[in-house]
């Protein structure tokens, strides 16, 4: 048994809380970027918000009701979120041409409003959050069944 498997087995009851915290921090971060720092979200950013925000409620209600099926409602949203955030990250890194972006004149999906260390952008942070949610959710399904 690997060290990661041992950790997952030992802390499997806390996995829903981890998913909830990742979703909550992601939601709060996106709201702060738009409302506090006045960064205008693009079309793909809105799609990512549409996929992330319900996760806070779905997982939170699942935790409060002590239900284990929340994962089957959250996982599809997170998987689609990985795809959208990954696509936008590739778009911002220049791997996907800008002509393929569903952009508007107000906010370009290819515009890097944040660029830390040359590759950490807002969609990449979203990609990491969705990926963490998918990974922890899959681990939760494997351990609880």
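Q: What amino acid sequence fits the structure above?
A:
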């Amino acid at each position: 048994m690997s060290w990661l498997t041992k950790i997952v087995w030992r802390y499997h009851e806390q996995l829903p809380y981890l998913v909830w915290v990742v979703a909550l921090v992601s939601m709060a971060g996106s709201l702060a970027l738009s409302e506090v720092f006045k960064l205008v979200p693009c079309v793909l950013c809105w799609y990512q918000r549409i996929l992330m925000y319900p996760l806070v409620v779905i997982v939170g209600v699942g935790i409060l009701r002590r239900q284990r099926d929340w994962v089957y409602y959250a996982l599809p949203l997170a998987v689609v979120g990985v795809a959208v955030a990954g696509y936008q990250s590739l778009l911002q890194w220049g791997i996907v041409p800008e002509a393929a972006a569903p952009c508007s004149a107000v906010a370009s999906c290819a515009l890097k409003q944040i660029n830390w260390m040359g590759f950490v952008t807002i969609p990449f942070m979203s990609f990491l959050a969705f990926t963490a949610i998918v990974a922890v959710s899959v681990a939760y399904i494997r351990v609880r069944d």
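Q: And what stands out in the fold?
A: The chain has five helices and no strands.
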